[in-house]
Specification:
It is built from 16 helices and 17 strands. By secondary structure, it is of the alpha/beta class. The chain folds into 2 domains: 251 residues, TIM Barrel, CATH 3.20.20.70; 56 residues, no CATH class. The strands form 4 sheets. The protein has a 9-stranded mixed beta sheet with strand order 9-10-8-7-6-5-4-1-11, with helices on both faces. The longest helix has 20 residues. The protein binds S-adenosylmethionine and iron/sulfur cluster (SF4). The site of S-adenosylmethionine has 15 residues, from β6 and β7.
C-alpha cells in the first residue's frame, strides 16, 4: 500500500519536474541548479524516467494530471525528444486530462526556433521565458547569457512555433534602476504581447555573489520608499494594459492564469519528480515531501528502488489553517470563508481573531472571501506573520 493517500476531492492533480541544470549560474539566483554537460543531462533524464516508473509502480499516481510543469534550473536545456519521452511515459502511466496545461521554463539564451517547434510537438503548450529585463546593461549586470534582442527573438519564435500561451519573467528593483528604466522595460515587454507576466522584485539571496556585493556596499538597491513605488508602477502599468494582477507577483490576460501555480496556492495535490523537487499531497491536513537537492543521493535511492522523497511536514489542523491563508491570501481570489469553515470547522475570524484585528483595513471580507488590498500585498510578509 502506498504511503501517499489522495484526498477524495482531488480530481486532477499536478506534477512538477525539476531540471537542476543551467548553462551558467546567474549571480543573484539561489535555485537548486548547477552547470552541467550534455552527458549529465542525458543521464538525469534517465533518472527522471525511473522516478516516474517508481511512482506509478507504487500506485502514487491517482487520476490523470491536470497540469505538468518543467521547472528549474533551465528545462529548455532538454532536447525535445527528452521532453516527449517524459510526457509519453506520463500519458502511459497516469494519463493527462484533455485540457492539461504543460509548462516549460525557458531561458531565451538557450533556444532556437527548431527546438521550440519540437517542444510544441512534444505536447508542451505553455512557455515561461526568463526575460528579466530588456536593457542590455541590466542583463549584463544580472549575468544573463543573452541580450534583449535575443529575448525578443525567442518570444517571437515561440509564437511562430504555435505557442498560444507565452509568459515572461521580469525582475525589478535592480541595482541602479530608475522608475523610468522600469517603465521602458514594461513598455518593451508589452510590445511582445505576452499572455502572462511574473514580476519579481530582486531579492538578495544568502550565499549568492549578489549578497557579497551587497555586503560590501557595492550594489545600489532601492530603499524602503523606492521599492513600493516600483511595485505599484508594475501594478498600474500592467492593469492598464488589461492584465489581471492575480497573485502578488503574477499577472495574466483573461484565461491565461498559470493553472499549475494556482493549484499550489490552493493547496491541491502536486507530485514531484527530480532532485530538489517538492510535492504536496492533499490528504487529511496535507503532507509536503522534498526530494533532496543532491544528485548522487537521488541516483542511489532510485537504484535501491526506494522513494527518493522525504517527508518535510505532515500538517496538523493549526498548520494547515495557517498555510491555507499564507498561500490563499497571496492570490486575488483570496480565501472563501465558507470553504475554510468546511475544511477546518471554524471561519477565519474565529480561528485567528487577533491576526485579523491586527491586519485592520488591509484584510477585507467581501462577498464571502478574505482578501488583502495592494498595501496588504506590499507588506505581505509583515501581515501574514500574524497568522503563522
Ligand atoms: C527558474 S528561473 C526561470 C527560467 C530560467 N532559469 C531563466 O532564468 O531564464 C525562475 C525565475 O525566478 C526569478 N528569480 C530568480 N532568482 C531571483 C531573485 N534573487 N530575485 C528575484 N527574482 C528571481 C527570475 O525572474 C527567473 O526567471
Ligand atoms: S535565474 Fe534561471 S538561468 Fe539563472 S541560475 Fe537561476 S535558474 Fe539558472
Amino acid at each position: 500500500m502506498s504511503t501517499y493517500t489522495l484526498h477524495k476531492y482531488d480530481s486532477s492533480p499536478s506534477l512538477y519536474l525539476h531540471i537542476p541544470f543551467c548553462r551558467s549560474k546567474c549571480p543573484y539566483c539561489d535555485f537548486y541548479s548547477q552547470v552541467a554537460d550534455q552527458a549529465q543531462l542525458d543521464d538525469y533524464v534517465d533518472l527522471l524516467l525511473r522516478h516516474l516508473t517508481w511512482l506509478s509502480d507504487n500506485q502514487v499516481f491517482s487520476a490523470p494530471l491536470g497540469t505538468v510543469f518543467f521547472g528549474g534550473g533551465t528545462p529548455s536545456l532538454l532536447a525535445p525528444d527528452q521532453v516527449a519521452s517524459i510526457l509519453q511515459q506520463l500519458q502511459r502511466s497516469v494519463g493527462l486530462t484533455g485540457a492539461v496545461e504543460i509548462s516549460l521554463e525557458t531561458n531565451p539564451g538557450t533556444i532556437g526556433l527548431a527546438c521550440l517547434q519540437g517542444f510544441r510537438q512534444a505536447g508542451v503548450n505553455r512557455l515561461s521565458f526568463g526575460v528579466q529585463s530588456l536593457h542590455d546593461d541590466a542583463l549584463q549586470l544580472l549575468g544573463r547569457g543573452h541580450s534583449a534582442k535575443e529575448a525578443v527573438q525567442a518570444v517571437s519564435w515561440a509564437r511562430q512555433a504555435g505557442f498560444e500561451n507565452v509568459g515572461c519573467d521580469l525582475m525589478f528593483g535592480l541595482p541602479g534602476q530608475s522608475r523610468e528604466d522600469l517603465l521602458q522595460d514594461l513598455s518593451a515587454l508589452l510590445q511582445l504581447q505576452p499572455d502572462h507576466l511574473s514580476c519579481y522584485g530582486l531579492t538578495v539571496e544568502a550565499g549568492t555573489p549578489f549578497e557579497q556585493l551587497a555586503l560590501r556596499g557595492a550594489m545600489e538597491l532601492p530603499d524602503e520608499d523606492e521599492f513600493p513605488e516600483l511595485y505599484l508602477t508594475v501594478h498600474e502599468q500592467l492593469s492598464a494594459a488589461g492584465f489581471e494582477h492575480y497573485e502578488i507577483s503574477n499577472y495574466a490576460r483573461p484565461g491565461h492564469h498559470c493553472r499549475h501555480n494556482l493549484a499550489y496556492w490552493r493547496r491541491q495535490t502536486c507530485f514531484a519528480v527530480g532532485a530538489g523537487a517538492h510535492s504536496f499531497i492533499a490528504s487529511d491536513y496535507g503532507t509536503r515531501r522534498a526530494v533532496p537537492a543532491d544528485l548522487e543521493r537521488y541516483r542511489r535511492s532510485l537504484e535501491l528502488g526506494r522513494d527518493p522523497a522525504e517527508i518535510l511536514e505532515t500538517f496538523d489542523r493549526q498548520g494547515a489553517m495557517a498555510e491555507t491563508l499564507y498561500l490563499g491570501l497571496r492570490c486575488s481570489e483570496g480565501v472563501s470563508d465558507a470553504d475554510f469553515r468546511r475544511w477546518f470547522g471554524s471561519g477565519v475570524a474565529e480561528a485567528f481573531p487577533d491576526a485579523v484585528r491586527r491586519c485592520g483595513k488591509r484584510l477585507v471580507l467581501a462577498r464571502g472571501r478574505w482578501r488583502f488590498d495592494q498595501q496588504g500585498w506590499l507588506l505581505f510578509d509583515h501581515f501574514i506573520s500574524f497568522f503563522l
